[in-house]
Amino acid sequence: MNSIKRTSIFILTAFVIIAIGGSSAFAQKAPEFNNDLMMGDKTYAYLIADKLEYRSINGSNPVMWDIKGYIGKDLGKFWFKSHGEAVPTESQAHMEFQGLYSRAISPYLDVTGGLRYDLAYEHGNKSRGFATVGLQGKAPYFIHFESGIYVSEAGNISADLEAEYDLLFTQRLIGQPIFETSIALQDVPEWGVGSGFNNIGLGFRLRYEFVREFAPYIGINWERQLGETADMARAGGGHISNFSMLGGVRMWF
Prior knowledge:
Oligomer: single chain
Distance between the termini: 78 Å
Number of helices: 2
CATH superfamily of the largest domain: monomeric porin ompg
Strand content: over 45%
CATH class of the largest domain: Mainly Beta
């Protein structure tokens, strides 16, 4: 009788262990594979007005913008970029548009390629197109940069570079020094471009991020044309350098 009782207890205990083990294994079962679980397979969209500002310059007060956005995955993205300035009171404007594809070649560096289109309104309308390749991303010390080499439809070759750095005074108050320059291999008189280094620009913007997506700012900017580009500006009665106070807003979605 005791033997039967011990056997019954053993069988009941075995069933309890199997039941508990089975339910635990079921609870820990891995989910079915889905591409959404792979971070690199997600599609992202981003749009930022990095600069949207009014500049106070002696003789003209232009509105300037630098807007860009992308849609794509971690490794590959399609970009749209627009940069330019306009003087509404004088019906003058210079606009630049780019459509690019970027491919990540390291965690902090992308190679880009695509098309650029320039449009200018000043003493008549004019336009020109380019093919472009470039690099963008973060250099050491988290300096963000964008660079490009351009070949125009007329075969003219040029390049540019812009670099900026976010200097955090607090979590919301951020200073941003900016450096930019460009170079051309040929003279393009109709666009006021000479061979060699064309210009240099230095700026500083101080923004306050009420929220990360919205930050008004104030700042200063200095630009100077160089070499043959400066000679062309002098011959046309233009200024070769200017200093401006500015105010604007930076916002992203």
